[in-house]
Specification:
Elements lengths: L1 H11 L8 E6 L3 H15 L3 E6 L1 H10 L5 E5 H7 L3 E10 L1 E5 L19 E3 L6 H12 L3 H4 L3 E3 L3 H9 L5 E5 H7 L5 E4 L8 E8 L5 H11 L2 H9 L5
Parallel strand pairs: 1-2, 1-3, 6-7, 6-8
Antiparallel strand pairs: 3-10, 4-10, 5-8, 5-9
Length: 239
Amino acid sequence: MRILLLIITLLFIPVASHADIVIASGAGYRSLVDQLIETYTADTGNKVERIYGNMARVTALAKNSGSVDLVLGDKSFLEKTALDTAATQKVGRGRLVLAFAKGKNFTSPEDLLAPEISRISLPDTKRAIYGKAAMQYLNNKKLLSAVEPKLLMVATVPQSASYVITGESDYAFINLTHARKIQKSIGGFTILDESAYTPISIIIEQMSSSNHADECQKFMKFIQSPKAREIVTTHGMQD
């Protein structure tokens, strides 16, 4: 187990990092986190290292590596992992969307039942919040049993989206943040009925083990600034 954790750490953290803090985030929020960090660094000169992956991997790394200062992800998952944290800040609200391949369209949930629709990709339904939300949506719309043979489960939001980009899937359940990032590479996307799945709250937490508490607080304060809130809104995660 120690060897495995060491391998994971080496894979995700550059050996010669000179960052002031390290943030680990769910892969589906990469475009948001990248822009927040780039803006923060431009304003302050402080460097922030970033790590992306599915939330199970991100939280395992945060718990065991001792190298992660901040973790960004969905509140429900982070609460279950019981990370030892010193502070929490809300980032925004996540939204489930259905992306469709070029040449396809989506007008109603029943479109998923069409015989010409052969594959629908979605993130891990046990480890990824948008995979769980997709299953809740399909259940609440009474579509799950009919579309289940078409479902292709992958690890993360970006992986789910990649199948629509290449045309290997007709549809993909992803989040709004990533959908906006890839919108030029797909046919389009539709924001799904938020009443059909549990609300998704995105937060950032400071690890108690962090040796950079002051820098963590500066970044979390930045998250509340008008400039950061504008970025969050641009990525579809406003409250």
